[in-house]
Amino acid sequence: MPTITVRDLKKVYRVHQKPEGLSASVKALFRRRYKYVHAVDGISFDIQPGEMVGFLGPNGAGKTTTLKILSGLIYPTEGEVHVLDFIPWARKNAYRRQFALLMGQKNQLWWDLPAAESFQLHKEIYAIENRQFEQVQRELTELLDVTGLLHQPVRELSLGERMKMELIAALLHSPRVLFLDEPTIGLDVVAQASIRRCLLEYNRVRKVTILLTSHYMQDIEALCDRVMMINHGKLVHDGPLADIVNRYATHKIVTLRFHDGRMPDQLDNVGEVLEINPPKVKLRLPRETVAKQSSHLLAQFDVADFSVEDPPIEDIIGRMYQGDSMAQEADRATGEPGRA
Amino acid sequence: MRKYWVVFKVALSERLVYRTDFFIATFLRFIPIITTILLWRAIYDGANRTEVGGLAYSQMVAYYLFVMIVRAFGSMPRLATDMATDIRDGDLRKYLLQPINYLGYNLTLRGAHKLVYFVMAAVPYALVFYLCRGYLPEWPSAGMLGLSMISLVLAFLIGFAINTVIGLLGFWFLEVASFIHVFMTAQYFLSGHMFPLSLLPESMQTVVDLLPFAYETYYPTLILLQRLEPDEAVRVIAVQCVWVLVLLLAARVAWARGLRRYAAYGG
Lengths: 340, 267
Known about the structure:
The complex is a heterodimer.
Chain A: E1 4-17, H1 22-30, E2 33-47, E3 52-56, H2 63-70, E4 78-83, H3 93-96, E5 99-103, H4 115-125, H5 130-143, H6 159-171, E6 177-181, H7 189-206, E7 209-213, H8 217-223, E8 226-231, E9 234-240, H9 241-248, E10 251-258, E11 272-277, E12 280-286, H10 287-300, E13 303-309, H11 313-335
Parallel strand pairs in A: 3-7, 3-8, 5-6, 6-7
Antiparallel strand pairs in A: 1-2, 1-4, 8-9, 10-12, 10-13, 11-12
Helix pairs in contact in A: 5-6
Chain B: H1 2-15, H2 19-28, H3 31-47, E1 51-52, E2 55-56, H4 57-74, H5 79-89, H6 93-97, H7 102-131, H8 142-168, H9 177-190, H10 202-209, H11 213-216, H12 218-225, H13 230-265
Antiparallel strand pairs in B: 1-2
Helix pairs in contact in B: 1-7, 2-7, 3-4, 4-8, 4-12, 5-8, 8-13
């Protein structure tokens, strides 16, 4: 049985339109104009116990709205959602004891108190048994290397340390489902890696189900076997991360290093030149021609080193986002007679 | 219940972070009273009267001193604003995610704040009351003292409930500062904080008696002043109980309805 089931989920927000100018503002006092925003527009998916799923999409695509619905903060407009057999927005205590939502930009800890006191509070709010509490707290503080900071007021911690404490607070009650919204935002590389390590370890040992959004592709690559991509409220991809590369990477990156620094002159007709840094050259070639072009290059020139790679996942996804909005603009343009 | 006890303890230690601020603030609170008392001195002398609104000058001084005590129970600094801000900025989220009741949590928090305040302010208050001992009535009987304590606790609950209802308006209005301002002004005037309500014309007194504000400040102050007979004091306490129930119920309804709206539109 899946941990999370979502069927035809829709969320429409009514947004008040504020017109420009004074007279328009006065008119708006009497007749308000609303715009309806389809934040989530009919998505369905299942997540199995212990899965770690990455939730990708540009800003405003509907990721956070979906997480809010799953954690019971908002009602959907339409559709069915079950998490651990609960309907999230009923906000039963039995459900709230079994999941956690961690938002990278919001804090839950008491600002003026040491994290240890906030943890004590969590212990009582979630009715965690003494032994379990001690054990989980020790495990996590060691794993994240913050044992020495437990008794320091939270306001005196660095952003990375604070985020680690937030993560511990979210995990103290051993949630079976964990929603993470940008958990590593604004953190340095070391802190990011440390949080990733903790999540991996935690998932491995406790089989917790994780749904995570992040703009850092390293987070997704390191943690998630499966990726759901959402754009304009619709699910545009659901599958292994590698599938995105296979499906959407239209090009490969070929790097060549030439012997003796002798560079050929006419590389432009081979493919798009990304970088010339003698004796190294980076080319972007269409996937279908990579094999032919490569053998051609190797035969013609004195090549010392040669590699073919997929473009960075960020580029692929960035292009997908752009491609989508370009397609939309094209739709709009053709919809208007005389301008197409 | 245990979790609210821990909320209480954590709130206590949080409050103790700002000790110095506390002492200074407590003393500063007495300064406006001095001007008020001087003003009344001038009124009594100028009108050449020994009684105004049924109170002798010394009783008037005692009235303001006791109002300070009652307000220490009933006032909820920033409660309404904080709740409205929680709603507007989405911090409400954290209470919705956790298995805890937002109103119960806030009530516990305020209880802890009050306790810390009383402990911290005990010395400055004792000093001021000692200096003004000439104006004060006799030490009350054990029975009246008991009634006074009950009335003060109810004043605390009325203050909490009214401010909660105002703060929860934040579910419907983006900006509640103007509501809070109107409410504070009305409360200052109608609760007896500004002057004893016996100074009001009779017709207005009837109206004021129908509102909760007088039961938050004026009547508890009269009990402390021993201006009420025990049976009158018991009646005041009964009406206070009714207000607590009505206002807490209103807060619960506002919470449930507001949350439905919040969950539908934002979150």
